[in-house]
Amino acid sequence: MPTDLILETEGLTKEFRGFLAVKDVSLRVRRGTIHALIGPNGAGKTTCFNLLTHFLTPTRGRITFNGREITGSTPAHIARLGLVRSFQISAVFPHLSVLENVRVALQRRRGRSFDFWRSERVLEGLDGRALELIEAVGLAAFAATPAVELPYGRKRALEIATTLALDPEMMLLDEPTAGMTHEDVERISALIRQVAANRTVLMVEHNLSVVANLSHSITVLARGEILAEGDYAAVSKNPDVIQAYMGSGHA
Predict the structure, then answer these.
(1) Distance between CA atoms of 182 and 48, rounded to whole angstroms?
(2) Looking at residue 89, what is its pLDDT?
(3) Which of 224, 227, 231, 246 could form a disulfide with 23 if both were Cys (CB 3.0 to 4.6 A apart)?
(4) Angle at 167 between CA 140 and CA 146, to 5 degrees
(5) Residue from 236, 228, 239, 235 nearest 43 by CA
(6) pLDDT value at position 249?
């Protein structure tokens, strides 16, 4: 794998009882970039994410992360290597406070089981880093708030904080702005740009303005196959993309 590539797939395919949900996808993500995976509903985007993190096992194909083949690895092992899927694997406990949630995620980073039985003094040793992460995602005023009481957009920010607690080299974000108000979309977009400053981000995103503003590279999927690749200017003018994706009115 060239050194500028952090993630690469070759011929990635997933078949469900004769239906090809993902077909021969060869994806290349450059280190230090924000790469968007877009396409119409049913294009295979979420299936691709599940294959990359091995929540689903590929029917065939191979996946390489940081020069190491991870095909067949467990989701936990892949996360320990530094490839973490946010929102699905983030531990957000509704009745724990924002601070407590991030502290639990930091415990996972240490490779320990949850230290609920440990002394308060030991757990408080994680508070400094937890508070740094909380401030970084704009939740300093909500540190003592139970997660269940957070507004939707703030809850997504907490999920990003718990993912950052694992110190991933690459983050996979699955529809990070779905269902958000315009204000929340702007806040989370700014947060994604901030956290991408020193890591790689691959995201599935329906909001095309977010894709246009954030992405360095875009891969368009349709019917499980790669339809086009490039920056937003090139992809948005591609006639096949316009027909399959833009013109459908769906993301």
Answers:
(1) 28
(2) 44
(3) 224
(4) 35
(5) 228
(6) 47
